[in-house]
Amino acid sequence: MKELAGKRIAVIGAGKMGETLVSGLLQAGYLDREQVVATAAHQERLDHLEDKLGVATTLDNRSAAQGADVILLGVKPQTARPVLAQIGDLLTTDQLLISVLAGVKTTALEDMLTGDVALVRVMPNTPSLIGSGMSAICGGRLATSEHLEVAEAMFRPLGRSLRLDEKHFDAVTGLSASGPAFIYVVIEALAEGGVKVGLPRSTAIELAAQTCLGAAGMVLETGNHPALLKDEVTTPAGCTVDGLLKLEEGGLRVTLIKAVVEATSRAGELVDPD
Ligand SMILES: NC(=O)c1ccc[n+]([C@@H]2O[C@H](COP(=O)([O-])OP(=O)(O)OC[C@H]3O[C@@H](n4cnc5c(N)ncnc54)[C@H](OP(=O)(O)O)[C@@H]3O)[C@@H](O)[C@H]2O)c1
């Protein structure tokens, strides 16, 4: 991948998401371990990353950031300010800062930075680990199309990505970043239904998960509206329509809508405004 060839990547705050992204890129062969240095707050975390990913690690954010071509910021939103205060003076216009922080706008991050550095904001999700992620990408004040291309190159092997106006990022957080958790609950509940009607639990989980995967693939690959695809499964007077009636009775649809709305509104409150 030419955009990442020879580039040094510093992951500042390599927690669950940082590890997911690096792991996905290493597995896809888009990065070599030698290109990566990762930081965290605790040595135990670094030991885990060294064992699991085989990348260089340090507790020193400044030494990791210095000289890196791309700095991936993966700390919690609340930790952005102190971490950027720590490394801000080292950052240069030759570097690209990529933030995956939920709820922190590019303007807020730029205000936390002392100097000029190009910033790209990405909102990924955890299925990036297996190349089935969904990431939204937007640029900050100094991001050029080249910077956006580098960010896209980093997220391409991890699944789908799209460029989107930043005004939609809280909604992306509430839908596709939080969404895997909602779908795991759906899978768990479908499987529970299978167990209730006598299936072995492992079989029920496999049936439920592959069904969700297949249904999602049908939506993406056919481009058909989900309602149309649902109608194709629903034979008049058949069994599916009885199941759908139970979903309506239980309010699944409205509950999922409310889950996305609630997660979106929480995304806007994750960090203090000053
Ligand atoms: N998880 C998701 O599905 C998801 C999806 C989209 C975006 N995000 C965003 O990704 C970011 C990280 O989320 P996460 O779930 O990966 O959280 P996480 O697992 O808690 O990761 C945060 C990491 O930051 C490290 N850290 C804390 N203070 C630090 C410091 N001063 N210097 C360097 N590292 C420091 C922590 O180190 P220790 O482990 O040593 O304490 C931890 O490994 C968040 O901003 C979140 O909004 C997450």
Summarize the structure.
The chain is an alpha/beta fold and 274 residues long. Helices cover 51% and strands 14% of the residues.
Describe the overall structure.
This protein is of the alpha/beta class and 274 residues long. It folds into 2 domains: 158 residues, NAD(P)-binding Rossmann-like Domain (Rossmann fold, 3-Layer(aba) Sandwich); 89 residues, ProC C-terminal domain-like fold (Orthogonal Bundle), CATH 1.10.3730. It contains 12 helices and 8 strands. The structure holds NADP nicotinamide-adenine-dinucleotide phosphate. NADP nicotinamide-adenine-dinucleotide phosphate binds next to helix 1.
Strands, helices and their partners?
Blueprint: E1 9-12, H1 16-27, E2 36-39, H2 43-53, E3 56-58, H3 61-65, E4 70-73, H4 80-87, E5 96-99, H5 106-112, E6 118-123, E7 133-139, H6 145-155, E8 159-163, H7 169-177, H8 179-196, H9 201-222, H10 226-233, H11 239-250, H12 252-267
Parallel strand pairs: 1-2, 1-4, 2-3, 4-5, 5-6, 7-8
Antiparallel strand pairs: 6-7
Helix pairs in contact: 7-12, 8-9
